Amino acid sequence: MSEIIYTLEGGTYFNLTNKCPCNCAFCIRSKGDAVGDAKRLWHDEEPSFNDIKKAVDAYDFTGVKEAVFCGYGEPTNAIENLLATANYLKSKFPQIRLRLNTNGLSDLINGRETAKEICSAIDVISVSLNDPDSEKYDKITRNIFPGRAFEAMLKFTRDCVACGNEVWMTVVDVIPPEDIEKSRQICEQCGAKFRLRSFSRGR
């Protein structure tokens, strides 16, 4: 089985699913079979919660201050496992901060508003803004919800902010400087914090 938990530059990451409604032009998974200390992040079969629970029980969390739901797919594509895993981790390691790296399309993926249930289990939400314009966003993310994805992502972000959680919006440093600045402004309008991600570092 491919790895469910892996480390990257000292961080602990959860690879819950390979499913994603996007096929981003700059996605890290297009660069290889794995990142960090993982040998393989492509699941032959989607892991069950029992698989994930076994991985948690076998992993040494000594010194881990934060665990990140990220991996080679969109974690909210496996929202039930995401929430169950977060709650299980909190029950075992309440001192560990939990972060979700997401494309922000959970509401479209799951057909319902999901910010409240996600924010009840996750401490920090990091949303990939990717581009400040809906048409460009669709082009760069190649998502399956063209024309709807951008606004849904912004709404999800605002909903998470309204829940009182720490919320970030990010863009990758491959877009033009003027679009980075527009992205920063959109982030401020949503009430979130802004971060510029490095493509070369893969994070």
Which strand order spans the largest sheet, edge to edge or round the barrel? 1-2-3-4-5-6-7
The helix content is: 25-40%
Overall shape: it is: globular
Give Rg in angstroms: 16 Å
User: Which percent range describes the beta-strand content?
Assistant: 15-25%
Low-confidence spans = none
| Category from helices, strands and their pairing | alpha/beta
Number of strand segments: 7
Instruction: Report the sheet with the most strands, covering strand number, pairing sense and barrel closure.
Output: 7 strands, mixed
| Tally of separate helices | 7
**Integer average pLDDT:** 91
* Head-to-tail CA distance between termini: 24 Å
Run of helices and strands: EEHEHEHHEHHEHE
Description:
Helix 1 packs parallel to helix 2. The chain starts with a strand and ends in a 6-residue tail after the last strand. A hairpin with a 2-residue loop joins strand 1 and strand 2. With 203 residues, the chain is of the alpha/beta class. The chain is globular. Strands 1-2-3-4-5-6-7 form a seven-stranded mixed sheet. 35% of the residues lie in helices and 17% in strands. The chain is built from seven helices and seven strands, in the order E-E-H-E-H-E-H-H-E-H-H-E-H-E.
